Every structure is written in structure tokens, then in C-alpha cells.
Sequence to fold (481 residues):
Amino acid sequence: MHFEPVIGLEIHTQLQTESKLFCCCSTRFGAPPNVNTCPVCLGLPGALPVLNRRAVELAVKAALALGCTVHQTSIFARKNYFYPDLPKGYQISQYDRPLATEGALEFESRGESRRVGIIRVHLEEDAGKSLHEGLPDSDRMTALDFNRSGVPLIEIVSQPDVRSAAEAGEYFSRMRAILVATGVTDGNMEEGSLRCDANVSVRRPGEPFGVKTEIKNLNSFRHVQRALEHEIERQIDVIESGGTVEHETRLWDTAAGRTFSMRSKEEAHDYRYFPEPDLPPLQIAVATIEELKGTLPELPDARRRRFVAQYALPEYDAALLTQSHALAAYFEATAAAAGNPKAASNWIMGELTRKLNELGTDIESVALTPEALAGLIRLVDAGTISGPTAKEVFEKMYGSGRSAAAIVETEGLARIDDEASVQAAVQKVLAAHPDAVKQYRAGKKQTYGFLVGQVIKSMSGKANPTLVNTLVRRELDRDSA
Ligand SMILES: [Zn+2]
Fold:
């Protein structure tokens, strides 16, 4: 029996501010433990929070980029729970009056338009960090680092509109692209700037939603996808073997490739939210919201549509090229300099991506300028070099700083259009392969392709392929006539 997964995602992202949400401490990652702390973010008695304006602006930009309604009044609330890395005994968050509600993230997934609703975007502070391992006395005690305590976050809660593990990974990746493009976050996943919790249940189509589990703290697109694949399969197994799925929180074990239970919802916290008495309601003027709207850059989805319209690219190319701002910018610069957008797209998605993967690097640190790549494309378009030669030139250009024209010139790689030299090569190849020639003339026409290949090879891929084809055919047909 076929099952359909129903997935909702909660993404936490760290806002790109210099200082914390309610104090002046630095948000810098990697500082020695507990250096970036003060009475406010340590939760000492009597310390009072002061809201960071920049954090609010970034949160508003994120909400606007996701098409949400930003509310002129929102309320900070205390979320009460005890944990060693939360010395105040509560986290300041937003509860029943969040910053923004009702938006959507739209994207293209395998040729299909997808729309995932956004329920809410709210501001909150991060907690500190408990270090359970890696220190000399880790077998006896847990160390606490409060540098992260009070760092500004937004939480983005989606509707349960996602229908597969792959789509969840894609949603997360698109979300990152938007948040990075708008300058809301640095998007650094290794440093925890972006984390995802996934709620998932399965049902037979047409049935009401099943019991969901929550998988916590997924910090890469791949982990989101793999954890959900595993969890969906696990839930189907439970149901098919006559059991019931427990409402619980689970964690993903990357090494084991499975999820395991962290706590059941029976032991779930009752956070006893109430309005934060130390902060007034957050008021944002309409004019401020409008002003921030005006600062939003072109978003990935709009850029993808523009690429299709402006450059006549296939949807597939446009979707790939707009995955990151850097990649899209590289494409636009190459296309403009080469005067051939489709060729620019082919080179970037093909050879350049292959090269970057091979070197384990990315477009941000690419060692080939768009102008240099465009120079290569222009040589191909002008017929100066053949396709195979172009790949060879590309290899020599990458990282060397040499231009395509210089390489072609000094290494004598220009395409050979001279009929006499190609003719000589053709005759030599036919003479060397009398059997293939005989087979062709006996009606086995496939040997034609083989002979053409041999001629091109004998001329190191430099011969004009159209000319080779014509001359091989002419030779074979002439002598048989
Ligand atoms: Zn502080």
C-alpha cells in the first residue's frame, strides 16, 4: 500500500549582527569560551534586556523575502524551561504575537512548481552550549560556554506542505539561498548558523494526517534528506507491522544512518509562556517596513524566472544557475562577455562544475574569471577551435591565468580547416584500415563513424569535424563508384 509523507520544517537561523539580541556582547564565532558574555546574557539577577535594532531589521527582511505579513506590533514572551546552558531559566522568544505570519516559499523541484506555506517568522535568542566531550575531565563533568547565549535567531515555521524527503532538502537549500541573498545570515552551516527541525508523519492518500515525530537539529541539506528518508521508512514499517507511531522527538545519528528516540511527547515541556515583562511590545512603523522592502535584492526565484525570459535558458539551467548568488553572478558576467548565454550555461554547468568538484572547491573561490571563460567560448563560436580542443584549452587555462587565445596561439591548437591536410589524413586512415573500408562498401555503414573517429584522433582533435565527415564520405563513395 502506498504511503504519502507529510512534512513540516522549522528552520532556525542566526542573524548576521555584530552584537547579541539583548546586550552589546559580540556574536563572533570561535572566541575562547565565555569571553563574549555580560550580566544580561548570563542571566544575572537584575540585568535588563535592550533590543538590538539591527536584528529586528534583518528579521523583517527575512519575513518580507518570504512574502509574510509583518505585524506592526509583536510581543516578546518568556519560554520557561530549565537547562544548564540557559541560566535565566527561560528563553526570550515570541509566542502568540509573532513578528510575521503567512508567507510562502516557492521553488522549482524537478520541473514542478512547488509552494510551501510559511506559518510564522519570529525572533528569539539562542541558548548557551553544553560541552559533554573533548575536555580532560569530560568523563566527570559538563562544561558550559555562554558565548552563544543571547545570539539573535529567527525561527521560520512552514506549513506541512512538503511531500518527500528530497523536497525537504530542497526547501532547506532554497531557504538558505534566500536568507544569504538578503544578508539576513551568513548561512554557515558548519558553525550552526542554520539548523532545521523536521516534523514528519505518513498517511495513505486521502486519509487525515498521521501521528508525527519531530527530528531535531539537522544541520545540512543532506542530513535533512537522509534523516527523513529513514524516518518515513521507519514509520511505514511500524504501521504495516500493525503498530502505532509514537508522538515523540527523535535525533538523527549520521554515523548509524538512523533516527532514535530522544523523548516522548508525554514528557514534553510545558513552557508556560507569558509576555516578557522587561521588554515593551515591539512596534515597527509601516514606513520602516516599506523602507526595508526597498532594500531587498532580487531573490533566487525571481532571478530564475528572469534567466528563462532574458537569456532564453531552459528551466533546468536557470534553476541550477540561481542556486547561489555567486554562481548566478558568474553566469551573467560570462554570458555578457561571450555573447552566448546558452554556451556560458553549458560550460558552467559542465566543465566548470566538474572542475570545482574535482578540486573540492566552489564558485566563490573559482580560479578562472568569467572574461577568460568567455574568451574560450568566443573561440569555439568563431570556429577557431573544435569542441574537443576547447576542453583541452579549458584544462590549461584553469588556474594558470593564461587566456584561451594565448594557449591556442602558442600551442598551435587552432582548428584545421585546410582541405589538403585533412584529405591527406583521411587517405592515410583509409589505407591503414582496409577491412573497415571493405565492410562499409559491403553495406556495413557503421564503420563510417569509426573511420571519422580515427581521422579526428589522428589529427589530435583539431580537424574541422564537418570537413572530416565530408571528406571521409567522399573518399569512400568515390572509390566504390
Ligand atoms: Zn551579553
In short: The longest helix spans residues 221-240. The CA atoms of residues 65 and 296 lie 7 Å apart.
